[in-house]
Specification:
This protein is mainly alpha-helical. The chain has one domain. It has twelve helices and no strands. Helix 6 packs antiparallel against helix 7. The chain is globular, with a radius of gyration of 17 Å.
């Protein structure tokens, strides 16, 4: 019961922090896939709480955050599911469960390229996702040869944060492009989607991913150490 109570407490704490981050919208820095700052806390939640508890905590955070601080459209409640999924993927990556990430990435990218409109979108619009997929493949090869201990020597906090955040991005792209969200939800034309893919997409979102990865790398080990040895219940 003590472990369960402590876990629930940590889920609640990270959910509260997530609500605050999700509600912070900075003018001039709200473009890309995230309008708030949930991308700063979601990887840490997955790493510290584990994949499933991290998912629950981040899901609570974005649902409450989006309710308290409404976005321009109600459809953002659908897209924001990417945040808890990304948190879960960060947890899987930190635990060395890379095969789950590989399956997720492969399905997301496969359905994207199978969508007719994707053929007209600039290839560089998702360069960060391709980089993450390439890194994931390399890590899977290393894992199969040398085991999970080798992965933990390669800055696991940075790798886990980066792969989890890009998984978040991929799910939102899946909703936007293969699921025709750009047309059904927003009424965008393929031409407008191409314009968005050309300039804002390959700049703003990768910068936020790198910012979050840097922050998680700095404070993640300390948070993990403190909470891993605390008596919070």
């Amino acid at each position: 019961m003590r472990i369960e109570g402590r876990t629930l407490s940590l889920i609640a704490v990270f959910a509260a922090l997530g609500v605050v981050c999700d509600g912070v919208v900075t003018l001039g820095f709200s473009g890309g896939v995230w309008f708030g700052w949930i991308f700063l806390i979601s990887p840490i939640a997955g790493i510290v709480l584990g994949p499933y508890n991290g998912f629950v905590s981040t899901l609570i955070a974005v649902m409450i955050g989006h309710s308290l601080f409404p976005r321009e459209t109600v459809y953002e409640f659908i897209f924001t599911i990417g945040a808890p999924v990304g948190s879960m993927m960060s947890g899987f990556a930190f635990n060395g469960q890379l095969k789950r990430l590989f399956a997720f990435y492969t399905v997301m990218l496969g359905t994207y390229f199978a969508t007719p409109v994707a053929k007209h979108l600039p290839i560089w619009g998702m360069w960060d996702c391709y980089l993450a997929y390439a890194i994931l493949i390399v890590l899977c090869v290393i894992l199969s040869i040398r085991g999970s201990d080798e992965i933990r020597r390669l800055s696991p906090f940075a790798v886990s944060a980066f792969l989890g955040l890009e998984a978040d991005v991929l799910l939102r792209i899946f909703i936007l492009v293969p699921c025709q969200g750009y047309r059904v939800f927003f009424g965008w034309t393929p031409e407008l989607l191409t314009t968005i893919w050309t300039v804002p997409a390959p700049l703003i979102t990768p910068f936020k991913v790198l910012l979050s990865t840097f922050i998680v790398t700095l404070i993640g080990p300390q948070i993990k150490h403190i909470l891993g040895n605390s008596n919070i219940c």
